[in-house]
């Protein structure tokens, strides 16, 4: 079996792609076919012994479209010089739209001017100027038809092939309207020549030019909105290619030389200096360093590397100098595999069958049949040719999908605009349409659920204060290139600590560091460092293990003899992540965490957030595979991520959602971007999709109700009984009314507001609890005889415990303690980050309101007082 990709031209709706798939599947030797409307491509798996490429192309051509074999071996440089088909299509659509409205608006003004008493030049007034009036309309309609000739070429081609689509209805209706208008011009000329002014008056009011032009202009507007979504995949792949270094420093015959990365061969020894990117995959042969692999693996903390360890192309060398032997080069590198996965996932993503296209597959042939039959029936009944023709045209004109063409794009346009107001960038109509069907949400951990930046979370001390330990540690780390150094220095900066002068600083690769401060040697690093220096761990082992189980990285702080404390660093969970997960589950959507991080960290985060399932230590291709597994179970999947490693999974998912603070590649590969990097906005996106789909269905109802009512009238069903015949102006009016109804209904989406199910339930519960508490306790924290209570320190003092929400690091701890100590009546306050509590010592009675206000102003929330 051979797999071949083809470029397909001429597709305008998902009905087109479905029709091509259907006809290709009928062909003997075809195993699998997937047509992608968004990228105008088709991937076919077929038996080479039965079929050839030209045979497949012929089937597509016979269906009414164009096809050619895609060149998958183009170099990046060549592809940069040529615009993609999607970009060219968008530019063409923009030009068509501008020309269409430039001529259609004056035409509409001229045609409707008499009816609404609009000012018009005298040459267009009166029966004597009827020819000028009619011929000017014809000249204004011609450019609109010419610039939109694609509707006619595709529409008539598919019609003659026996598979009419929306373009066929547009082509037949507008051609018939303009054709009848030309016929009317001849009648006007005949009437003027024979002084038959009654004929002149009749046919000067029977011109359909403005209907044809406005239909074409409005349909083109809808197509323009759809075309905007195309071209994203090629941009994403281009940015992925840009990540890889263009050159490599290779050591050959003892001489270092810089060569293009394409010339690197397996077995080459490559030199990487601090700050440089790794050009290809390989194994370190000399030196050690720490590499930032977050863009590829999702691991937020740079990884220590030594001789024998594998390095991945496009990762960044944070510190150190090393050499490695090239193992995977060219198309075999991890980055190249990611690029290929993005391409494959994007091309295999099935196009969404819009409801309008499904209806049109039945509606279009039925309307054409009714128009032809109505014309024939009236001719048989003895009506004049003009009467019968006007009946057929009236059916086509009132059935032309003006409102149908607006039904989806207007709702999508308002919906995407509303999304932007809520910090949600929706890049395609397909994404907004399918998001309401999501059953499983897969989330990346690093940078999505968590902040993606290590912070100090815990400090445990023995014989030294937290402040002093942090000052010494930050002083030492300030000169370090260790991956966790920034977190410790940042914490000291947040606490406004003045750092000490450091002497004899020494980085100990794979262990930590040693530094002399105030005449004393201090060590900061891992357990290996303590064992190497023969330093007593002093019972800190159990605490270190507990921190590690919580997904944190414990760093031992020691002097020359004993461990004095532990500083724990971790990538902390965002404030809104838990709420977002709860909201998804309240909506009946399963949440799965997918991460390249280690199992221990993933499990700690899973427990903390109450996620039912977590999959850890997965590579980029594994993420894409996991998404596919869920889809194979028949579930619609949304993927939320932020890194390059998430790009294949974002492309594979039914809806890819990228965090706005993430990489450009992730953003380009995704269908939806959360500008504020807030997971609650992903919940809003799903709710907005549900509201938009409901609105689209209502729009389709209004778009068709006029056809249901108007077609029998246009066909002359009521003419024999009631002498009712549809006037062309009424036909145009009905079309306009359906369009106004559709647009007006779509504008209701502007009033959309996200609903927080969990917050609403919790809010009701909290209100009830607050009322109950106030009834029982009043406004005071303590309603007991304060003077009879004392703590262990003696005196008229009392301890209370506050549960505080929102604290995550040492900075939070210091901020809450400071806020509470500033409250009049608070003698002392000690915060425990593990239990999220603050033990407050009171010297006099203090109200709940005072404590709550103090903590709230600091940016946190008291949720319980004991």
Jot down its keywords:
866 residues, 30 strands, elongated
Largest sheet: 7 strands, mixed
- Residues in helix, %: 40-55%
Shape: elongated
Uncertain stretches of 5 or more adjacent residues: 73-83, 229-233, 345-353, 764-795
Structural class: alpha+beta
Oligomer: single chain
Classify the beta-strand content into a percent band: 15-25%
- Strand sequence of the main sheet, in spatial order? 14-26-25-24-15-22-23
Q: Termini, distance in Å?
A: 71 Å
The gyration radius over C-alpha positions equals 36 Å
Tell me the number of strands: 30
Number of helices: 32
Mean pLDDT: 79
Polypeptide structure, described:
Helix 6 packs across helix 7, helix 9 runs parallel beside helix 15 (about 400-420) and helix 13 runs antiparallel to helix 14. The model is unreliable at about 75-85, about 230-235, about 345-355 and about 765-795 (pLDDT under 50). The protein is an alpha+beta fold. Helix content is about 50%, strand content about 20%. The chain is built from 32 helices and 30 strands. Strands 14-26-25-24-15-22-23 form a 7-stranded mixed beta sheet, with helices on both faces. Strands 6-5-7-13-8-11 form a 6-stranded antiparallel beta sheet, with no helix packed on it. The chain is elongated and about 120 Å long.
Topology record:
Layout: E1 2-9, H1 14-25, E2 30-36, E3 41-46, H2 53-63, E4 66-69, H3 76-81, H4 85-116, H5 130-147, H6 149-160, H7 166-193, H8 197-204, H9 209-227, H10 232-243, E5 247-252, E6 255-260, E7 269-272, E8 281-287, E9 289-292, H11 294-297, E10 303-305, E11 310-311, E12 316-319, E13 322-328, H12 334-348, H13 355-380, H14 385-399, H15 402-421, E14 424-426, H16 429-434, E15 440-444, H17 445-449, E16 450-461, H18 466-477, H19 485-494, E17 503-508, E18 512-517, E19 520-525, H20 527-533, H21 541-549, E20 553-558, E21 563-573, H22 577-586, E22 590-594, H23 599-609, E23 613-615, H24 620-632, E24 637-641, H25 647-652, E25 655-659, H26 664-669, E26 672-674, H27 680-714, H28 719-722, H29 728-747, H30 757-777, E27 798-805, H31 810-821, E28 826-832, E29 837-842, H32 848-857, E30 861-865
Parallel strand pairs: 15-22, 15-24, 22-23, 24-25, 25-26
Antiparallel strand pairs: 1-3, 1-4, 2-3, 5-6, 5-7, 7-13, 8-11, 8-13, 9-10, 9-12, 14-26, 16-21, 17-18, 18-19, 19-20, 20-21, 27-29, 27-30, 28-29
Helix pairs in contact: 1-2, 4-5, 4-9, 5-7, 5-9, 6-7, 7-8, 7-9, 7-13, 7-14, 9-15, 10-12, 13-14, 14-27, 14-29, 15-27, 15-29, 18-19, 22-27, 27-29
């Amino acid at each position: 079996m051979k797999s071949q990709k083809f470029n397909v031209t001429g597709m305008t709706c998902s009905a087109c792609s479905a029709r091509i798939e259907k006809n290709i599947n009928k062909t003997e030797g075809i195993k699998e076919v997937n047509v992608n409307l968004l990228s105008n491509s088709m991937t076919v798996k077929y038996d080479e012994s039965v079929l050839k490429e030209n045979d497949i192309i012929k089937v597509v051509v016979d269906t009414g479209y164009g096809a050619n074999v895609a060149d998958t071996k183009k170099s990046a440089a060549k592809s940069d010089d040529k615009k993609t088909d999607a970009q060219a299509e968008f530019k063409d659509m923009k030009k068509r739209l501008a020309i269409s409205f430039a001529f259609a608006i004056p035409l509409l003004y001229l045609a409707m001017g008499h009816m609404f008493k609009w000012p018009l030049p005298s040459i267009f007034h009166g029966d004597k100027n009827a020819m000028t009036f009619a011929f000017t309309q014809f000249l204004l309609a011609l450019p609109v038809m010419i610039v939109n000739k694609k509707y006619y070429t595709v529409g008539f081609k598919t019609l003659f092939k026996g598979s009419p689509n929306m373009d066929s209805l547009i082509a037949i209706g507008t051609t018939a309207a303009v054709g009848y208008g030309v016929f009317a011009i001849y009648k006007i000329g005949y009437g003027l020549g024979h002084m038959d002014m009654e004929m002149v008056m009749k046919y000067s009011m029977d011109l359909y030019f403005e209907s044809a032009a406005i239909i074409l202009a409005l349909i083109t507007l809808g197509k323009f909105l759809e075309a905007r979504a195309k071209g994203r995949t090629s941009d994403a792949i281009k940015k992925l290619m840009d990540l890889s270094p263009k050159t490599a420093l290779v050591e050959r015959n003892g001489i270092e030389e810089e060569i293009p990365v394409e010339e690197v061969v397996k077995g080459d020894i490559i030199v990487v200096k601090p700050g440089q990117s790794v050009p290809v995959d390989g194994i370190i042969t000399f030196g050690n360093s720490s590499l930032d692999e977050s863009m590829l693996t999702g691991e937020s903390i740079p990884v220590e590397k030594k001789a024998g360890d594998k390095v991945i192309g496009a990762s960044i060398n944070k510190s150190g100098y090393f050499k490695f032997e090239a193992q995977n080069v060219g198309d075999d590198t991890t980055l190249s595999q990611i690029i290929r996965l993005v391409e494959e996932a994007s091309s295999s993503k099935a196009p969404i069958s819009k409801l309008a296209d499904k209806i049109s597959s039945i509606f279009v042939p039925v309307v054409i049949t009714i128009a032809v039959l109505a014309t024939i029936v009236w001719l048989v009944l003895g009506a004049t040719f003009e009467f019968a023709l006007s009946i057929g045209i009236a059916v086509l004109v009132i059935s032309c999908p003006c409102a149908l063409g607006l039904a989806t794009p207007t709702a999508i346009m308002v919906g995407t605009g509303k999304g932007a107001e809520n910090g949600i960038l929706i890049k395609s109509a397909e994404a907004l349409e399918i998001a309401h069907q999501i059953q499983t949400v897969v989330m990346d951990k690093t940078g999505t659920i968590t902040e993606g930046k290590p912070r100090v979370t815990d400090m445990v001390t023995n014989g030294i204060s937290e402040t002093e330990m942090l000052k010494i540690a930050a002083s030492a780390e300030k000169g370090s290139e260790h991956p966790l150094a920034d977190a410790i220095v940042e914490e000291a900066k947040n606490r406004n600590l003045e750092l000490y002068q450091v002497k004899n600083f020494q980085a100990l690769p794979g262990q930590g560091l040693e530094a002399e401060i105030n005449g004393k040697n201090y060590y900061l690093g891992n357990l290996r460092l303590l064992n190497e220096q023969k330093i007593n761990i002093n019972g800190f082992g159990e605490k270190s293990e507990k921190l590690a189980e919580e997904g944190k990285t414990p760093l031992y702080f020691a002097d020359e003899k004993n461990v004095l404390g532990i500083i724990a660093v971790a990538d902390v969970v965002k404030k809104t992540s838990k709420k977002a997960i709860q909201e998804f589950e309240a909506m009946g959507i399963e949440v799965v965490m997918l991460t390249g991080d280690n199992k221990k960290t993933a499990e700690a985060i899973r427990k903390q957030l109450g996620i039912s399932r977590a999959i850890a230590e997965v590579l980029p291709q594994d993420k894409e595979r996991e998404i596919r597994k869920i889809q194979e179970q028949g579930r619609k999947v949304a993927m939320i991520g932020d890194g390059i490693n998430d790009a294949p999974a974002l492309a594979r998912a039914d809806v890819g959602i990228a965090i706005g603070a993430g990489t450009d590649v992730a953003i380009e590969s995704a269908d939806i971007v959360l500008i504020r990097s807030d997971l609650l906005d992903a919940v809003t996106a799903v709710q907005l999709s549900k509201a938009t789909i409901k609105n689209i269905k209502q729009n389709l109802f209004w778009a068709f109700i006029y056809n249901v009512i108007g077609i029998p009238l246009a066909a002359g069903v009521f003419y024999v009984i009631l002498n009712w015949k549809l006037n062309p102006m009424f036909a145009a009016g009905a079309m306009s009314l359906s369009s106004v109804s559709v647009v007006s209904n779509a504008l209701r989406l502007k009033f959309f507001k996200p609903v927080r199910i969990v917050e609403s339930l919790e809010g009701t519960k909290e209100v009830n609890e607050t009322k109950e508490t106030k009834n029982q306790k009043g406004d005071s924290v303590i309603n007991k005889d304060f003077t009879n209570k004392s703590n262990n320190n003696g005196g008229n003092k009392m301890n209370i415990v506050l549960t505080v929400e929102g604290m995550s690091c040492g900075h939070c701890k210091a901020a809450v303690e400071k806020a509470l100590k500033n409250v009049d009546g608070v003698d002392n306050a000690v915060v425990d980050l593990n239990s999220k509590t603050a033990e407050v010592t009171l010297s006099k009675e203090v109200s709940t309101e005072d404590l709550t206000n103090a903590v709230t102003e600091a940016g946190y929330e008291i949720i319980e007082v004991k």
